[in-house]
Amino acid sequence: MIKLLSKSIREFRKESLLAPLFVTLEVVMEVIIPVLIAELMDKGIDGGSMSAIWYYGALLAVSAILSLIFGGCSGHFAAIASAGFARNLRHDMYYKVQEYSFSNIDKFSTASIVTRLTTDVTNVQNAYQMLVRIAVRAPVMMVASLVMAFLLQPTLASVFLVGIVIVGFVLFYIATHVHPVFEKVFRIYDKLNSVVQENLRGIRVVKSYVREDHEVEKFDKVSQDIYKNFTRAEKMVAFNAPTMQFAIYSCMICISWFAANFIVAGSMTTGQLTTMISYAMQILMNLMMLSMVFVMVTMAKSSTERIVELMLEQPDIRDPEDPVHEVADGSISFRDVSFSYAKDPNKLALRDVNLEIASGETVGIIGGTGAAKSSLVQLIPRLYDVTCGQLLVGGKDVRAYGLEDLRNEVAMVLQKNELFSGTIKENLRWGNEHASDEELIRACQLAQADEFIQRFPKKYDTYIEQGGTNVSGGQKQRLCIARALLKKPKILILDDSTSAVDTKTDALIRQAFLEEIPDTTKIIIAQRVSSVQDADKIVVMDGGRIDAVGTHEELLKSNQIYREVYESQQKGGSEHDA
Amino acid sequence: MTPNKEPRKNLVQPGIGKVIRRLLGYVVGRNKLRFVAVIVCIIISAAAGVMGSVFIRSLIDDYITPLLQMANPDFSNLIRALMGMGCIYALGVVCNLCYQRLMVDISQQAQRDIRDEMFAHMEQLPIRYFDTHTNGDIMSYYTNDIDTLRQMLSQSIPQVFNSAVTVVAVLCAMIFTNIWLTILVLIGVALMLNVTKYLTGQSGHFFIKQQISMGEVDGYIEEMIHGQKVIKVFCHEEKAKEGFDKLNDELCHNATQANRFSNMLMPIMANIGNLLYVIIAVLGGTMALCGVGGTITLGVISSFLLLLRSFIMPINQISMQLNSVVMALAGAGRIFKLMDEEPETDNGYVTLVNAKYNKETGELEETEERTNLWAWKHPHGDGTITYTRLTGDVRLVDVDFGYNPDKIVLHDITLYAEPGQKVAFVGATGAGKTTITNLINRFYDIADGKIRYDGININKIKKSDLRRSLGVVLQDTNLFTGTIMDNIRYGRLDATDEECIAAATLANADDFIRRLPDGYQTVIDGDGSSLSQGQRQLLSIARAAVADPPVMILDEATSSIDTRTEAIVQRGMDALMTGRTVFVIAHRLSTVQNSDVIMVLELGHIIERGSHDELIAKKGKYYQLYTGAFELE
After folding, report:
1. Which residues in chain B are classed under CATH 1.20.1560.10?
2. Is residue A320 domain-resident?
């Protein structure tokens, strides 16, 4: 796990090493300072020598300044190292996600990928910064102080050891026992947040049914749960500081007693007494730091795990070894195709599909929700791979093509479509980076989008907000169609892409397709019979199978589902989807 | 712990004093005794610490030095002194533990109270508030702001307080030990604080920048990952990487700057402390040797150096905590702002009561039992009370309305819906269809005109009672985490299981519910992801059915369902509609065809009204819609 993450350090290896190095130097200086002070007190003040005072004073000043510089440097390098590491980590994760296939994305869900890339990386960044500095500083400081203490006064120093063991044990005990409670608290927090979220989304329902009090009660219950657990955890943590104090005070008294004896016996100086107390405090303080680091690092652990999970995910659709670059034509052939999202033959979304589509044909697909219409067409640009059987495009298995080559020839307008923040032009150029303005307009005319774009004050330079919220559903759909057209594909797939477009415009779009891009194979998934009834063939899907294939007239005669759908829509004369 | 998504727009607000006072109200106000105990404990524990430092002086001057001069050293005095010290220390430790634990109680309680009050208040806010604030913004009160508050209450405040007490105690001890050295120390500390201020200012500046670019990166990631499938379809991966790298590099730069300054803070402060230490040692030593500045002994210097440590440490702590305190106060300010939002006002005095007909007089009268007969209880100014039977007669007369007073979106809306009638609204998005229903259940109040319910001005009706008499089924089903049964019962909390099942049966939902693994006890998520859209809609119809209101509002209830599924949902819906006054909003004209009256809305005006046949015959806008010549969006 660590090994995988450490790959992202890369160019910041130098800083990542310099930070702990400078921390160590800083520690050395800080450990020397108490010794120098002891010397100053004993030789200078006690010995009554002005020159000794100045000599040691100067040494002390130099040490403090050096310590400051080293400390500053370590902070500087730690900042570069951790921010850089986070940058590389985000970069690596983001690039990894770009390799993901649809099924990889489905597996994680969008929200979870976003959290991993943002919050989790920040957690790891903070932990890393801690690791290269405090996590080095604390133990080094402890060891160095202990060594110095032993050099000065072995008997007294062993008192420290006892203190360290006791405090260390208590701190460790608390840290390990509190952690699970905190984890639990955070889980309850999630519950609390989901109550709030449900209320925000459903506020109209809450208010309509006058359920405010009911909801408040629900919230208070979760809130009380948090209170109880949090209090329990924090009360355990509350032992930290007193334990620490207890240890320091005990050391002070022991030191005072032993030191008095030693000094009277002549084996220790008064200056050394102060030094020993300084060391005692330094050691115990850093022990405390260490336990803090421990807690922080364990907190970052779950973030690390989530990140690693994302990095280890293997994109399950890759370019073949020796890819074919040319897609010969727009013919499509499904041969005994079965497909399962879970790659589990027992959970098939599509079963035994056999379908031949000639190049240039217009094919309509119709069926209820859950009939697997989208699943079927998503196999064509190899957004998913078939589980069994074979799918040929242009006479070759889709798995033989280079992914980019295939997808450049198979343009698809997804059901859940997205525009991106940027101008209309920028959005359209997703289809073809080098498209000229004339080409853009041409595509928009085909998609019946030019007319409304021209009515915008800034025309093709109109800025689209994130998620395309400033254009209507129908306009968004037409822009998405235009964007796909700009690819000049051999196969064009519209997955329920004109549902918000009125029937007249819908008909105009299909008319334009027929006249302007006759050689392109067109596959149209629709809810409305009117969108597909002129197609060369209509595929009726039901429950993951092809129920029937035929023309409008044939199906009306022979197919019950088709007739039902047709009739349910005839009753209203026409119908308009949201 | 919680995602910190957007850079908050207003990091600090004015009126911090007020916020602190109010916050203290939660912390202190409800725990006065405990808080006093905390203060006492903190003072004792700080005093114990200070006494320890002072003790070193007497250890050296009063015990060790005399002992050195004795031929036969007698340690009994020292033992007594040490034992005395031990007791003081013990007291200090106990007090420390006490206040730490008390503080946990106090701060956790304060947080819970704030949390609960905030939510309870939020539930009381008018729909307008939710319409004008994004869910994400409101959500961040619960995630970010409560979280910073938590850190401040449970960590920063006790630490700052403890440090402050320590600083004062140590200062007294220092002055008591030696005034000249103390002055020196104060000058040094002033210098140190200035450096700190400069550094925190610098890092604060970059932290804000870091927050902003963090927000940009987060936003970019969110947009791209949401559109990831589109990226794949268009082979746009490389471009998406390019845009990301640019923002990521900028974030890295700002994060480096911000962290660099804050990282340097600790070593710089610690070492200025060290330098001060050196200066005191040197000057103190010189003074001791030259005999200036009173009687400076070795013990004085030793304990002064220790005091200096205990002086600088809490000052460092305070300055480090200060930043998070300011952040938390800003958060608290935002929370209080939410809590100060004007709640939904309700001056209604007409209430809905169970009623029965008096057998003798034949008049309506109030009753305790559940009679399935409801009446509006209308107290008048002269002390009389009239009862009006609840029938579901809704009239709008010359209603004008605007979400903003200067932008009227509904003009002169007049319509009558008699009990049992079905009234449909047709029109493009923004024509004002949903707005009309928002007015009927008083999510918003009309600007001009009148709305009467069973002949009573709805402004006089208590909002909760008005809403109980209206059922809604919306396009977004909004189910709640819990069992299917709970979700149906949401319509009427005292409904029995049988009533819920009956409602589900009526709504055509019983079939699919029984096929679920745990039937009615199946637990569903709030977003109902385990159910199909049609199933969710059937549940929300069942929910409305169990409430059994005389008036129903169906707002695009079937828009997101395919036509074949709609047929099933429609049957449930038809069952629900019989015998009720129904307002239907729909895109699909098939849904509204059989309405008693159809209103075609355009830009807030009713431009056509009549039955389906009348409107077809009229060959107006409705006709055009019907024949598909127009697009509804």
Report:
1. 21-339
2. no
Are A241 and A139 found together in one domain?
A: yes
pLDDT, one tens digit per residue, over B1-33 is: 333 333 344 444 457 788 888 888 888 877 888
Minimal CA separation from B363 to chain A, in Å: 29
Distance CA A570, CA A564 (A): 10
A321 domain residue, yes or no: no
What is the rounded distance in angstroms from the CA atom of residue B122 to the CA atom of residue A216?
Answer: 10
Please state which CATH number belongs to domain B21-339: 1.20.1560.10
Nearest CA in chain A to B475: A578
Same domain assignment for residues A248 and A200 = yes
Closest CA to A170 of A232, A242, A234, A229: A242
Distance CA B242, CA A237 (A): 46
* Phi, psi for A170 (deg, rounded to 5): -60, -50
Residue A317 domain-assigned (yes or no): no
Task: Give chain B's largest Cα–Cα span.
Answer: 127
CB within 8 Å: B628 and A487 = no
CA dihedral B69, B73, B77, B80 (to 10 degrees): 130
In this structure, are residues B104 and A234 in contact, taking their beta carbons and an 8 Å threshold?
A: yes
H or E stretch at B398: strand B394-401
Q: How many domains does chain A have?
A: 3
Instruction: Say how far apart CA B503 and CA B496 lie, in whole Å.
Output: 11
- Domain B394-627 sits in CATH at 3.40.50.300
Closest CA to B459 of B346, B365, B616: B346
Residue at which a domain ends, from A267, A287, A312? A312
Per-residue pLDDT band at B632 (split at 50, 70, 90): low
Domain of A545: which CATH number? 3.40.50.300
Give the integer Cα–Cα distance in Å for B400 and B396. 10
- List the single residue in A53, A199, A505 with the smallest CB-CB distance to B282: A53
B residues 196-225 closer than 8 Å to A (CB):
214, 217-219, 221-225
User: Scanning the structure block, which residue is given the tokens 């101008």?
Assistant: A423
pTM of the model: 0.76
Is this prediction's ipTM beyond 0.95? no
Are A217 and A282 found together in one domain? yes
Q: Going by DSSP bridges, is the β-strand pair B551-555/B470-474 parallel, antiparallel, or unpaired?
A: parallel
> Domain check: are A159 and A234 in the same one?
yes
Contact A503 B628 (CB under 8 A): yes
Q: Of A255, A285, A312, which closes a domain?
A: A312
The type of residue at A336 is D
Phi, psi of B619 (to 5 degrees): 55, 40
C-alpha to C-alpha distance for B209 and B211, rounded to whole angstroms? 5
Is position A318 within any domain?
no
Question: Chain A window 298-357: which residues touch B at a Cβ cutoff of 8 Å?
Answer: none
pLDDT confidence band for B94 (50 / 70 / 90): very high
Sign of CA dihedral B186, B188, B194, B200: negative
Decide if A59 touches B, using CB distance below 8 A.
no
Please give the residue range of the domain that contains residue A360.
Answer: 327-409+491-578
* Interchain contact, A238 vs B566, CB within 8 Å: no
User: Do A393 and A331 meet the contact criterion of CB atoms below 8 Å apart?
Assistant: yes
